[in-house]
Amino acid sequence: MKKSSGIILLCFLAVACHRKSVPQTEKNVSDNKTPVNVRPEKQANLAEGEALYQANCGKCHDLKDPSRYTVAEWRPIMESMAPKARLNMEQKTDVLTYVISKAKSIKN
Description:
It contains four helices and no strands. It is mainly α.
């Protein structure tokens, strides 16, 4: 009887400690047509992101067509270029949201 009590307790603990799935508030779209990891309220900032992209990134070099790069390629580009363009975190997020919304899809 004592052995079965231990097994029951162990099962109870395993179920109680199991991480439950929580609905995500961020979009995680694998087709690259929609911004990845962008909160819905940030969607409204696409126009701001485009304006920042044109104004700040176009100061030093020709603007690249956002659809020329994939989401995976845009992330490190933004990491290296945002400090040079002196973008704050919100501006960086807006520009990244914009370029990701236009990013090239990866064909499977």
